Amino acid sequence: MTCEHADALYRHPWPGQTSRERETLREHASACAACGATVRRLESARRLLMDDVPLASRREDAATWAAVEARIEARSSLWRWPAWVAVPAAAAALVAALMLRPTAPEAYTVTAGALATAEATVTGGVPSDAPLSATVRTRIEGEGAVLTLEPGAQARLRSRDLWALEYGDLAVEVQPTPAAPLTVLTEAARVSGVGTHFRVSVADGETRVSVSRGQVRVESKGAPALTVGAGAEWSSRPAPPPLAPSTEPAVAPSQARPDAARRAEDRAAVDRARALVTQDALRARRIAGEVLERRAAGPEEVDALAVIADAHRLSGEHRAAASFYARVAAHPAGVAYAEEARLRQAQMLMALGEHRAALDALALDDPRLARGALAPERAALAAQAWLRLGEPDRAAAALESADPRSLAVQDARRAVQRALEGGQR
Amino acid sequence: MMRMRLLIPCALGGPWLSSLVDPGVRERARLERTPTVEELFRRHSDDVRRIVARLLGPGAAPSDVEDLVQQVFVVVHGALPRFRGDSKPITWLYGIASRTVLTHLRGRRRHRKMVASLEVMTDLLPTATEHPETEASRRQALNRVWRALMTVSAKKRVVFILYEVEGLTGREIAEALQIKEATVHTRLYHARRDLDAALATLEATP
Hints:
Chain A is α+β, with helices and mostly antiparallel strands and 425 residues long.
């Protein structure tokens, strides 16, 4: 129910509003049910927000100021010289660093096999930017990655996380832990991934990528970046060989090459659905469903799944929402949303009374999510699940390493405290 | 001659009179009036922390609040030479804090995480019927307001909070955010309308 005077209420007080206008508006609001409700809602919201003074901890001031000083100092050292000196100097330093980096990053060591290299003294660290030609299969170990250079292949280590493959075969196993993905650069493509096993082959000007575990991102000239999942192959040749069957339906081989126009169309549709989801969940779900029916891949597919999950959640369909959040979290292109999706999935399972399943969904032991932005909320929700299962001690344990400044953690701690006190009585 | 010029009070004359005053003297006087970053931090760090936390809402991670407070004073350090003293230091700081928060809020993923965090907090709070203490029902109501506020775009939300909660005038907000006063009123109007619609929807949801 709305009233034609609501517009004036939202503007009130407006510049130049007379006392007569103010009075008329007040009289109207007290007589009209719709406007009365608006005034009550906005006024109550304003009061609640005003009464809620976020804590400003004086105890942290000294540490904060020390951090501010350090950041100012770091910036000042960058800008201490005038721009006309600093910019050319920085550029010269960069060029010099690129040209004169002779030392080997200690991140990689050769542990088996043999290499014929420009410098024949490779016993420990791999020399930076010197060609490494393998005569027999050679294993190169790094922090969080193991590379196998097949006989006859030649590669160069460009930087800590960047290898250039000139020809031959290079197999790469990257652990899920490195902060930055490992990248293999060839003449035709740039292949990068974390937590994945893949192989790159360069022959006759063609680059081929095959993935055996996880997924990699492939960027090549003149084509949009795409994600290649486990079991799929990619080739830089215009007519690629038939793709191997995928074990991960989310990035099926047939979906690995969406054309740019279709992706743009999918993106626009997903954005439209996202904007609609709080007002018209059903319509948002339909639009996102159409995107999935068009076999969208990668980020568009993840976003469409997330919209459908949100729409189910907002409609109170917890079971369906939990299932869609699980799909988002498990999607190879959904790494950025995994933490939120796990949290939502757990929320939905809690609403269904499936507390053990919620604890599994929270994935508290997943190292990729350990320091995520929602870690306090996940810990708090886990504590809530343990409480519902009647185990306050385990609830307290779930909160042990959680950030004490988080309001969610503080609320959960109070709930645990109440439960422990109740148990003692 | 120079001494004579210095004796002419700027306030008595127009711009042409003030231009006669030695600019070096004006600059020195301005510098004497201008507080250092450390002074501003000592005096206003609580205000900055409060406004950053308020603009972000309770769904923000405490580490984000801390990081943004530091970032605000780093920006203050860079901008201090340009601070002319035309506005109160606190209004100037409000502007820097608001713009820093707005930049931080640009990411869609960050917004989604804040909303998710708020909703978990709502779940965790005891319901008013379970725990009829005033505090529990107040926190429930506050969380509901924040969930509604998070549906309002960040630009409008910042204006709404600065006006309705922090009590700044339209002119002060315009100055702080470096926008026209008419834009402040438009954003405030839309923020109230969107917030009311979201609150009404939440009220209707069981």
